[in-house]
Task: inverse folding
């Protein structure tokens, strides 16, 4: 089993679920999706063969959850997790801890895709230890992209935002860097 998690249910249904469904079901034709209360994608035998190189005896499923309720992420064992927009405030530290616990048996990996929204748990628990290790942490890797690194992102919009925002805020929102407002005291 695998897990895709968003900060909240509305955010999950807004983008993650439709994109996952489009790519895994319609484009790659790897399996079937059951929505509603279940929200689970099940790989077909052909999808397993194409993806994993074999067909496991147990069904391969991808579950969808949200991090605003850490308890909703419990009672499962996952091989890997994709956490989208994990930097948002509604993506709680307790949810991160629940995810890590659910990955323990398989020593699974987590992919977090997000921009920095604040200087909360993600910075303290992941980014700061990675930085303190000289960017060579044995368990954490950070890959940074600016908005402009996306070929579909208009340079004009990037420059408009740079000219209209405080530099610290621009660097967080458009360069993906943890920053704090000038004069902020901790």
Result:
């Amino acid at each position: 089993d695998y897990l895709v998690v968003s900060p909240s249910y509305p955010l999950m249904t807004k983008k993650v679920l439709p994109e996952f469904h489009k790519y895994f079901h319609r484009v790659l034709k790897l399996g079937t999706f059951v929505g509603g209360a279940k929200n689970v994608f099940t790989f077909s035998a052909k999808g397993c063969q194409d993806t994993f190189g074999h067909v496991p005896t147990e069904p391969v499923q991808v579950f969808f959850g949200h991090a605003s309720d850490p308890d909703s992420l419990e009672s499962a064992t996952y091989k890997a997790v994709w956490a989208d927009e994990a930097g948002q405030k509604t993506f709680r530290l307790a949810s991160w801890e629940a995810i890590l616990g659910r990955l323990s048996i398989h020593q699974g990996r987590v992919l977090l895709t997000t921009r920095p929204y604040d200087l909360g748990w993600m910075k303290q628990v992941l980014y700061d230890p990675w930085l303190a290790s000289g960017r060579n942490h044995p368990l954490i890797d950070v890959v940074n992209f600016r908005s402009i690194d996306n070929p579909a992102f208009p340079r004009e919009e990037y420059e408009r935002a740079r000219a209209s925002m405080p530099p610290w805020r621009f660097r967080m929102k458009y360069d993906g860097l943890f920053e704090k407002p000038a004069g902020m005291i901790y």
Summary: The chain has six helices and six strands. The first strand starts at residue 2 and ends at 6. The longest helix spans residues 9-27. The CA atoms of residues 5 and 65 lie 5 Å apart.
